[in-house]
Amino acid sequence: MSPSLKLATAILIAAVPALPGLAQEYIYGPLPQVETHKTTLIEVNQPAPSATSSTEVVAIQKGVQFDFKERLNNLQAQIDNGLQKGWLKVGQAAAFSTERSRLLSATNDAESAGWPKAQTDQLEKDITTFSASVTTNMSQSAAATENIAK
Description:
By secondary structure, the chain is α+β, with helices and mostly antiparallel strands. The protein has a domain at about 65-150. Helices cover about 65% and strands about 10% of the residues. The chain has helices at about 5-15, 20, 65-85, 90-110, 115-150; strands at about 40-45, 55-60. A two-stranded antiparallel ribbon has the order 1-2. A hairpin with a 5-residue loop joins strand 1 and strand 2. Helix 3 (about 65-85) runs parallel beside helix 5. The longest helix is centred in the C-terminal third of the chain and has 33 residues, at about 115-150. The radius of gyration is 31 Å and the shape is elongated.
């Protein structure tokens, strides 16, 4: 083997560990947006009557759908607080509580149907509108009460 071939072979063997670093790609600019969805699996082992056991896997999706009930519960607390502070009249609070119950029922229907997109979108719109209505009525009543006190 010629000396130059030996030298080339030695350089190639020495460079092999560094080759993966030379092949690395770089991304310039903003990173691409990746949509993620979080799912939690809960495995439940239940003893069977016989010597064998069974396993049931239950998937729980966490996302915007579960915010609906929390938002509605927070709105009921806001309605109760407005009634207590005199920012809402009894009739207004009752009407808001009735609407909240209707939206909670619609949320339960959407949940039992597997959260269809059309129902979820409508719930988002309806709950947001309802929240704005409660807040607007309470702030107008609070401002009116403040003006009367002056």
